Amino acid sequence: MTRTTLIGLTCLLLASPAAAQEWAVKMFKTTSHDFGTVAKGSVATYRFKFQNIYEEDAHVQSVRSSCGCTTPKISRSELKTWQTGEIVAEFNTRNFTGHKSATLTVTFDKPFHAEVQLNITGFIRSDVVTRPGAIDFGNVDLGSESVQKLQVSYAGRTDWKILDARTADPWYEVEMTEMSRGNGRVDYELLVRLTPDAPSGYVNDQLILVTNDAKAREFPVDMHGRVTSEITISPAKLFLGVVKPGQKVSKNLVVRGKRPFKIVDVDCPECFRIEPSSEAKTVHLIPVVFTAGDEAGRVAEKISLRTDQGDASTAFTAFAEIVAPDGATAAGPSSRRPTTAR
Largest Cα–Cα distance in the chain? Predict the structure, then answer.
């Protein structure tokens, strides 16, 4: 069983405002992002990921941008312990060109007031345009392929060329054709293929186009989509809550298939109880019951389900936070800093 202990952290009332808000900064994996050089009209999006690492609930009240060149959105405003959220920053490449930067101010009002500043920078080219702004593969069945067309237009030097198209993963293929060249304009058409080797899950990658332009040699094009398997589980990470020793909690798991199926076996530790239906159906709503042990700390377990659709199993992670019944590790309301859960 995976388990870690709770550590209570208390901040003195006399601490500086910056130190008092440090707890909020610690939830973010990073607080800055450079888009580099991007084409005009392209989709340039970055997700600042953050996780509530505290016992108390956290709430994002608002987010604002210092510049119209970047539009921020909140993916999830209310986070319980260990839940994750994102501040999505979209670079406005249609209405702005040149070097741009913005500061996104994220305001929390729970468990205490705090502000976190996220920094965005990038250079938007005015001489290169991509249509569409991003490659969308849509929903693709596992083992199938999807081919999308990308047009790239350049205005400027007559000898401008795209030399290469690169990706970080091997399940992409690119066919590139120069369509026209003349009068200071160059046009390319690219066929981008997501191959049958792509794993199941969300596609969030970039196609890097390499040119002969010494000043801006590379620029990215976002690629997104989803590869769906025969059986899917939602949520992939099931949080059962903050509980006391001996307490029993239950939450539902949704298991979907493309055709009716049975769940024939479950592999999970003794502290969890899962009793799926023996019927064959396309959607199974399964209660996952957790009984907390005597030791305080975080419990996280991988649970596997096997169906009658093949030998491969489908897994999800279930986790919970066990806290001391006397609340001895909780931070008092005057601490101005929440209690860290580890």
Answer: 78
Which residues are CB-neighbours of 269 under 8 A, at least 6 positions away?
1, 301
Q: Which CATH architecture has domain 31-126?
A: Sandwich (2.60)
Dihedrals phi, psi of 24, to nearest 5 degrees: -70, -40
Nearest to 324 by CA among 310, 305, 341: 341
% helix, strand, coil for the chain, step of 5: 0, 60, 35
Cα–Cα distance measured from residue 259 to residue 308, given in angstroms and rounded to the nearest whole number:
11
Alpha-carbon distance of 181 to 154, in angstroms, equals: 9
Task: Tell me how far CA of residue 247 lies from CA of 295, 320, 325, 340, in angstroms.
Answer: 12, 11, 10, 21
Contact 116, 31 (CB under 8 A): yes
- In the chain, where the domains are located: 31-126, 134-228, 231-322
DSSP 54: B
**What fold characterizes domain 134-228?**
Immunoglobulin-like (2.60.40)
pLDDT value for 330: 38
Please give the Cα distance from 256 to 253 (Å, whole number).
10
Burial track 163-180 (b if 16+ CB lie within 10 A, e otherwise): eebeeeeebbeeebeeee
Measure the CA dihedral 331/333/334/340, to 10°.
30
Residues of the chain with pLDDT under 50: 1-15, 327-335
Q: What is the pLDDT of residues 243-256, one digit of tens each?
A: 999 999 999 999 99
Give the number of other CB atoms < 10 A from CB of residue 324.
15
pTM for this predicted structure: 0.72
Fold for domain 231-322? Immunoglobulin-like (2.60.40)
Q: CA-CA distances (angstroms) from residue 86 to 52, 77, 155?
A: 11, 9, 36
- Which tens digit of pLDDT belongs to each residue from 74-123? 999 999 888 899 999 999 999 999 999 999 999 999 999 999 999 999 99
Closest by Cα among 336, 340, 338 to 18: 336
User: Distance of CA 281 to CAs 181, 259, 293, 308, Å?
Assistant: 57, 7, 34, 11
